[in-house]
Amino acid sequence: MVILGIVLAAVAVGVGIGIIAENSSPASIDVFGQHLPGVQTEGQVFAAGVLVAFVFLLGLALSALTMSRALRTRRELRDLREEHHESINTLEMEKQRLQRELARARSTTATPMTANDVPVAGRPAPDPVSSFFDRAD
C-alpha cells in the first residue's frame, strides 16, 4: 500500500510537470505530447489541476496511513514479545522456588513415608512386619 501511494503521488507529479512544460495556450492541456480532449476553458484547466492535486494528496495520505499502521503493528508485536519474556522469567523464577522447596522438604524427611506410616486417629500404628510371613503352611 505504501508503494501504491508513492506511485500515485509520483504519477500526479509527473502529470503536473507534463502539463506545465508542454502547454503554451491557456485553455488547452497537452500531456507528454498528447492533447487532452474536452478541455477548452481556463476553468476546465483549473479543474484538471485540482484533480491532479487530489490524486497527489490521495497518494500521500495512503502512504502515511499505511506506514502508521505498520508502525503500530510493530510496536504491538514488540510489547507482546516483552510481555512474553517477562512471563517466562516469572515462571522460571517460580519453578526455581518450587524446586528449592521440594529439595528442602526432601532433606528434612530422611526416610520416605508410605501410606502405612501415617498414623490414623483411634488406630494403633501398623506392625512393620507383615502378617504374611507369620503363617505356617
Task: Provide structural commentary.
The protein has a two-stranded antiparallel ribbon with strand order 1-2. About 65% of the residues lie in helices and about 5% in strands. Strand 1 (about 30) and strand 2 form a beta hairpin. By secondary structure, it is mostly helical. It has one domain (about 1-105). It has helices at about 1-20, 40-110, and strands spanning about 30, 35.
Structure annotation, total helices: 2
Helices and strands, in order, run as HEEH
Number of strands: 2
Structural class: mainly alpha
Q: How many domains, in number, for the residues?
A: 1
- Computed Rg: 42 Å
In what range is the share of β-strand residues? under 5%
